[in-house]
Design a protein that fits this description.
The structure is a single chain. This protein has helices spanning 20-47, 55-78, 87-115, 122-146. The protein is mostly helical.
Length: 155
């Protein structure tokens, strides 16, 4: 059967992404998964001997790279509609963003290891605080800079 009705000119060329609430929910779910991956990597590396200075910073750096790289690709695919375009520019924006959040995460982790009382939970709490700061920076920058939706130019 052939449609005889004209197509609406308001039909978008690409499907719209989820709204802000949908993005926050997806970002939260993906972030939760990647945070567990990050924490698991950090804990594993510390368990195999990377728990003293400077190796604890190397462990945090490695776990950060594992978690945030996974988060970038999952968020690009499932959270931000703008992630489906401009691959090269997005990778550059991703690298710049994650260099900044890398130093924030590792620096805050190190600060918290010095500030928090020594306990069985010290390293986990330090990781949580550093991860929280990195997560806020990542959502804001991914949404409004790296994966921003640009208006479609009409010919």
């Amino acid at each position: 059967m052939v449609a005889t009705e004209p197509q609406s000119e308001t039909t978008p060329a690409t499907p719209a992404g989820p709204g802000l609430l949908g993005q926050l929910i997806r970002f939260g779910l993906i972030g939760g998964f990647c945070a567990l991956l990050d924490l698991g990597t950090y804990s594993l590396l510390r368990a195999i001997g990377m728990d003293a200075v400077p190796w604890v910073d190397v462990a945090r750096a490695c776990s950060f790279v594992v978690g945030t790289t996974t988060a970038f690709f999952l968020n690009r695919r499932f959270t931000f509609a703008g992630g489906r375009r401009d691959g090269g520019a997005q990778i550059g924006g991703f690298v710049l963003l994650y260099v900044v959040t890398f130093f924030v995460a590792v620096g805050v982790n190190q600060l918290m290891l010095h500030v928090l009382a020594v306990s069985a939970w010290q390293s986990t709490l330090a990781w949580v605080v550093s991860q929280a700061g990195a997560t806020v920076i990542n959502f804001v920058m991914l949404k409004w800079v790296v994966f921003r939706e640009r208006p479609v130019k009409e010919n």
